[in-house]
Amino acid sequence: MNKKISWLNDTAKAWDHNSLLDAQAHQMQLTKPPGALGRLEELAINFAAMQGVVKPEIDNINICIFAGDHGVTDENISAFPQAVTAQMVENFIHGGAAISVLANQLNANLTVVDVGINAPPNSSQKVLNKRVVNGTANFAVKAAMTETELCSALYVGYELVEQSVQNNTQLFIGGEMGIGNTTSATALAAVELEVNVEQLVGPGTGLDADGIAHKRLVIEQALELHKDKTKDALTRLQYFAGAEIAALVGAYVRCAQVGIPVLVDGYISSVAVLYALAINPDVGNWFIYGHQSKEPGHKYVLQALKATPLLDLDMRLGEGSGAAMAVSIIKQAIGLHNNMATFEQAGVAEKISLEEPV
Q1: Which region among 242-246, 348-352, 354-358 has the lowest average model confidence (pLDDT)?
Q2: Cα 209 to Cα 76, 79, 184, 214, distances in angstroms
Q3: Same domain, 192 and 270
């Protein structure tokens, strides 16, 4: 594989162990029984360790939506035409999409990136043009990308995270837009997890039972066609990923390397995490999982990642929307950690010892 992606192997930034211990000690002094706030305590402590402080902050959020088209739509695996990808990018930048509304409510920075849309370049300055391919090839016939295209798409993720570093981002949410990308994600999950496609495949854009059966068959035939050429994570990405999924993989790896916490969205984003870890197993401490997607394959990916999402709202929209919904949970966890009174401050008696005096 191309030497231009040697950065993928760089080690992840370590958590600050002293801040972790100090945050744990701080939690023990708050006016509540230890552990009474459950996972909220763990979230706050982990963010303290990530940021290297006792009292973390989460005010600067970057939501980055990577967009790309998929040649496999030639196989009629989507209820919507490929043109919807470019149309939805317009919707993102004009504020009409779910993630646009959520980003506005969170006062988050929303970046929309064209990594591989199959349409004329968008003239809006609000869309970042990082296009590496005019839509991927049909992976039912050939590799979705060349090696060079894959390397370039991964590097787009790297570049966007470097920009996040310059902007002092405290939380990164990666989203995606690409008609056909649940087909891509299912192929990637099936080959990496060695799970039957039938267990993973779902409705995506809203397929009926016959549509899902056809989608499954297309994926199964493609996996069989390319099985001798897809022996590692990078070649699997080359053959089955969209440019936007590859960019997510690159972004997730780079976030861990520079120490920016990632709030992971649903099925497609979690598949990108699966591949980030397959490429660089060192990066796993920097991921928080936002929600459980209704796409059937997501539960298998989460099981492989040993991940428990913060929310389960039957969502399957993508765009980073489920992760954005979970931001409020993290904000509340940090707010409780930072602002609750200690026993001493409140004049409240601490837990008594029930041990017999010696």
Answers
A1: 354-358
A2: 14, 12, 19, 9
A3: yes
